[in-house]
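Exercise 7 asks you to align residues with tokens for two separate proteins.
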Amino acid sequence: MKIVLAISGATGALYGIKFLEEAKKAGLEIQLILSDSAKKTIELETDYSLEVINELASCQFSNSDIGAPPASGSFLHQGMVIAPCSMKTLSAIANGYAGNLINRAADVTIKERRKLVMLVRETPFSPIHLENMLKLSRLGVVIMPPIPSFYNKPNTIDDIFRQMTGRIFDQLGIENNLVNRWAATAQRLTLTKELAV
């Protein structure tokens, strides 16, 4: 399975890196695009080198290479993930401004009706951000802010990253055991018993 992964310059570069690590374990073919701002964020926020990150991917393209394979609809893949997705990248994609490879690859993913998952990273959201997200959501783009779940009782930051990565895998139709799944029936039975006491 071939997936395009873009890491933009928003804080939270580890979301993209952790996805990349789990994707490699799962045997996925990852086409990686890093923005220039992402490279700076990775250096500031993580202990990963760009060399290590590039080695995790099947291949890596420069964000300025508008002629790279992911810029064409004839380049077949099973989905694209932008993790994290900055508001600048969100705005460009929502408005069809394909000025770099990340934006163009996302534009192509939308026009070819392939799955696009965007881990939008900002808080609070302004009305402009929300309008851009709504516009893309109506086109079928999955808007997925990296909000941690706590019903799985995470003990470490890695637990939070694993859960989010598993949820991205779910959106792409990739079977995984990364997600601690909600056991709704068991929870209801427990709650019913507690209320009956």
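Second protein for Exercise 7:
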Amino acid sequence: MEEIRRRQLIDATIASIHEVGFAESSLSRISAKAGVSTSIVHHYFEDKADLLEATLRRLGTNLRLAVVSRQRAARTPVERLMAVIDGNIGAEVFTPEGVSAWLAFWAQVPNSARLARVQRIIIGRLHDNLVDALRPLTRGHDVQAIATLVALLIDGLWLRAALKQDTPNGATARRLVIDYLNSKLNLNIALE
């Protein structure tokens, strides 16, 4: 029951951030969204900072699980690379609610050591996954630089989606990343 209730509160936090923003997402609003009392929130989380950290961790876990599930099916170097990319901009993570939450958390990272630590882990995982996937495909290219650019492109697509500027959907975001990789590495990754 504890894991179910924690997930319910985290989902309510993401929905609240999407609807009213980070600053207006009070514990009372989040608990009402989850259909529970504020005391229930305090039973499962020490305070709002604890709930917010758990929410950011959940968002990172969702990305990790999306990548891992795709990597299990990948058989070729290109499929392993696309597993990392699709896991970071796939339909299950690249949602309006998820995008709003990520932008809100990114804005808070400079002021929160707890959130900054979690964000560094998430960013590091993306970079390491990209380096590992790109290494067999980058003969003669700087794998670190390409991984950094792909990660920045993914982050930029999330930012644009959150700001609703040239709002890319997952398919558009995927096409932009594939276009870059095809041109940079002389690959022929299908756009599907």
